[in-house]
Design a protein that fits this description.
CATH superfamily of the largest domain: Glycogen Phosphorylase B
Distance between the termini: 55 Å
Order of helices and strands: EHEEHHEHEEHEEHEH
Strand content: 5-15%
Number of helices: 7
Strand order of the largest sheet: 3-2-1-4-5-6-7
Shape: elongated
CATH architecture of the largest domain: 3-Layer(aba) Sandwich
Largest sheet: 7 strands, parallel
Helix content: 25-40%
Number of strands: 9
Structural class: alpha/beta
Number of domains: 2
C-alpha cells in the first residue's frame, strides 16, 4: 500500500469501536486515509481530522436472530465498501457478521485485501474452525503472541500487534485489598457473568471493595447488579 491508501475499518460493537478508532488514529498519523464505520452504540469523538466517518448502518444487536435484517445489513456494508473503493478492508471482532461479510467481499471485490482484527479466540474453543479462515482473510492481527503459533498450523498469515489495554494503564500495586471484576464487554456477558463474579467475590472476602470495569454504555447495568448483590 502507498501512503495515500484508503483503509476501510468496520466494527459492530462498542469494544470494536474503540479498537477501530485507535487503529484509525494510528493509520492517519502514518499518512493513510482511514474510513471508520462504527456500531453507534459507543459514540466517538473524531479528534483526528484524518479519520473519515462512514455512514451508519443497522447495528449488530439489531439483526441477531433476524435473517432478513442480517441480510440487509450485509448488503448495506458491501454497498458502502464498494462505493468507497478502499485499498484494504479491516474488520474488527464480531465474526458472526464479519465472516459472511468477508465472503461477500471476496466475491464482489476479489482484489481487495481483507484483514481481521483481532484474531478469533479459536484456540480456546473448537480450534478446527480455523481451517475456514484460510482463504477468507488475507491476514489476522493477533493480540497475543501465542496466537501466531496457533494459526501457523493452518497456514494463516498473522501479525502480532499486542493487546491495546497494555498501553492504556500504568501498573499499580493493590494496597487496599480491592477486587477487580472484569465481566466482559457485551451485554449478555455482563448479564450472565457479573452475578457469578459478585457472588465469588463475596465468598472470597465479603468486606472487600469490588471494582467492576466495563464499557461506559453498560456502567448503569453493572451498577444495578452490584447494588442487587448487597
Amino acid at each position: 500500500m502507498t501512503s495515500a491508501s484508503k483503509v476501510c475499518i468496520i466494527s459492530h460493537e462498542p469494544s470494536g469501536d474503540l479498537l477501530g478508532y485507535e487503529l484509525a488514529e494510528e493509520l492517519s498519523r502514518l499518512g493513510f486515509e482511514p474510513m471508520l464505520h462504527q456500531s453507534g452504540h459507543a459514540p466517538t469523538t473524531y479528534g483526528q481530522s484524518g479519520i473519515k466517518p462512514l455512514p451508519p448502518t443497522m447495528g449488530l444487536w439489531d439483526v441477531l436472530g433476524k435473517i432478513r435484517a442480517a441480510q440487509r445489513l450485509l448488503q448495506e456494508l458491501v454497498t458502502m465498501v464498494k462505493a468507497h473503493q478502499p485499498s484494504v478492508v479491516v474488520t474488527i471482532d464480531s465474526m458472526a457478521i464479519n465472516g459472511p461479510l468477508a465472503r461477500r467481499l471476496r466475491r464482489e471485490l476479489p482484489d481487495c485485501p481483507l484483514v481481521h482484527y483481532a484474531a478469533p479466540k479459536l484456540w480456546a474453543w473448537r480450534p478446527g474452525r480455523a481451517k475456514k479462515l484460510r482463504g477468507l482473510f488475507d491476514r489476522l492481527l493477533c493480540l497475543f503472541p501465542f496466537e501466531q503459533r496457533f494459526f501457523d498450523q493452518y497456514d494463516i498469515a498473522t501479525n502480532f500487534v499486542g493487546h491495546p489495554v497494555v498501553g492504556r494503564f500504568s501498573p499499580t500495586t493493590n494496597k487496599d485489598g480491592s477486587l477487580l471484576l472484569l465481566p466482559g464487554s457485551r451485554r449478555t456477558e455482563i448479564r450472565r457473568l457479573l452475578p457469578i463474579f459478585l457472588k465469588a467475590a463475596d465468598m472470597h472476602d465479603p468486606n472487600a471493595r469490588k471494582v467492576v470495569v466495563t464499557l461506559p454504555a453498560y456502567r448503569e447495568m453493572a451498577a444495578q447488579y452490584a447494588t442487587n448483590s448487597k
